[in-house]
From TrEMBL:
PANTHER family: L-THREONINE ALDOLASE (PTHR48097:SF9), L-THREONINE ALDOLASE-RELATED (PTHR48097)
InterPro entries cross-referenced by the UniProt entry: ArAA_b-elim_lyase/Thr_aldolase (IPR001597), PyrdxlP-dep_Trfase (IPR015424), PyrdxlP-dep_Trfase_major (IPR015421), PyrdxlP-dep_Trfase_small (IPR015422)
Cofactors required: pyridoxal 5'-phosphate
Limits of the Aromatic amino acid beta-eliminating lyase/threonine aldolase domain: 58-288
Presence of keyword Membrane: no
Keyword Ligase applies: no
Gene Ontology MF term list: L-allo-threonine aldolase activity
Protein name: Threonine aldolase
Alphabetically ordered keywords of this record: Pyridoxal phosphate
Sequence similarity: Belongs to the threonine aldolase family.
A GO CC term attached to the entry: cytosol
Region (Disordered), start-end ranges: 1-24
Xref: SUPFAM superfamilies: PLP-dependent transferases
Length: 381
């Protein structure tokens, strides 16, 4: 079996184990059969659209309704729907480059455009990136203020996913924004997961988004929508972004399934996110205690007190060993504790991401510890 075939086999096993699990911390929409998801979307659609409402054409109708709701939630003048966040952020920062006269974007080296977009900022949009810090956190005000070369925009990913879904303190965030303003730079928030940041900051979405000139949000990462994103900001920039969306090939003929699923996410999932964040902290503490009780030589839950409803777990084993233990536990006990593991750092060290959503609310700390004990039992000692 080739490496590619082995990976496909593992992926198929993981998907089947997730679908068949009786207990899981998070049931991903990716593991719901296609016809079931379509039926659920059709059944719920009347909650957010009129029974006789026409489908959208090139961004009107339900897409326009979604844009207005996002602008309202974020306290911005306007918002525009995009098929992808990759496109939304390229357009936003390209527009700002034209207005500031500086195509350099300051961001973290672990930010999504640097790791997961094939150098699109540079290859497609003619933008250049610089890094005020490479520490596993957002930049500090001093690092932004003292950076040795000019930049037109500061991009802040909230939370910084690949560093562990981490967020700064509110006062730190205010200070770093002020430091950017002192340099005459605009501030753009990569808010793919901004929706779940309110418990950590203790501030409403409008106040968080109000720090930035523009904000991008995703509809499928936390809100469980089908796809899509929005860019919110000043009306003049949003209208310019609409033109660039068309030039980038994002002016789709119809997008009503994605728009309806996004509106349903805003209605049903958004109000639940604070409960997910609170319970993620219970789960994280129970995982830490469970690993200690199981006698593992080393483990890490990061952050120790999660900033959102997602966090990382690190263990000193090869990723394939941890994948097999996770899959074996899910297949044999119907408890899906951990998903995919990734080699990260020195050889023999791996990490996974833990997400706590509706299904995870039923887990007590003791439930988590019991699942950890069963998982660790499957590891070589």
């Amino acid at each position: 079996m080739t490496a590619n075939e082995a990976e496909q086999d593992t992926r198929a096993r993981r998907s089947a184990a997730a679908r068949g699990a009786a207990r899981t911390l998070h049931r991903s929409p990716l593991h719901i059969p296609l016809t079931e998801r379509l039926s659920a979307l059709a059944a719920a659609a009347p909650e957010v659209v009129g029974a006789d409402e026409a489908t959208d054409i090139y961004g009107d109708g339900v897409v326009a309704t979604l844009e207005e709701e996002v602008a309202r939630l974020l306290g911005k003048e306007a918002a525009v729907f995009f098929p992808t966040g990759t496109m939304a952020q390229q357009v936003a920062l390209r527009c700002w480059a034209g207005r500031t006269g500086n195509a350099t974007v300051a961001l973290h080296p672990k930010a999504h455009p640097e790791l997961h977009e094939g150098d699109a900022f540079t290859a497609v949009s003619g933008l250049r990136t610089v890094h005020p810090t490479d520490e596993p956190r957002l930049p500090m005000a001093g690092e932004v203020r003292e950076f040795p070369e000019p930049f037109g925009a500061l991009m802040l990913e909230l939370p910084l996913r690949d560093a562990g879904f981490v967020l700064p303190d509110w006062e730190e965030l205010e200070a770093v924004v002020e430091a950017a303003r002192e340099r005459d730079a605009v501030v753009h928030i990569d808010g793919a997961r901004l929706w779940e940041c309110t418990p950590h900051f203790g501030r409403p979405l409008r106040e968080i988004a109000g720090l930035a000139d523009t904000v991008y949000v995703s509809f499928y990462k936390s809100l469980e929508g089908l796809s899509g994103a929005a860019l919110a900001g000043p009306r003049t920039l949003v209208e310019e972004a609409r033109m660039w969306r068309h030039r980038y090939g994002g002016q789709l003929f119809q997008q009503f399934p994605a728009a309806v699923s996004a509106l349903l996410g805003l209605k049903h999932v958004l109000p639940r996110l604070p409960a997910y964040v609170a319970h993620a902290r219970v789960v994280a503490e129970a995982l830490r205690e469970g690993f200690a009780a199981a006698g593992l030589p080393w483990s890490r839950v990061h952050p120790g007190r999660p900033h959102t409803h997602q966090f990382q777990v690190w263990l000193p084993y090869a990723s394939e060993v941890l994948d097999e233990a996770s899959l074996g536990q899910a297949e044999e006990t119907k408890t899906f504790l951990f998903g995919r593991w990734f080699a990260d750092g020195p050889p023999g060290l791996s990490a996974t991401e833990v997400t706590v959503t509706e299904e995870g609310l039923d887990w007590t700390a003791d439930d988590v510890k019991e699942a950890v004990a069963e998982f660790v039992r499957r590891l070589p000692r």
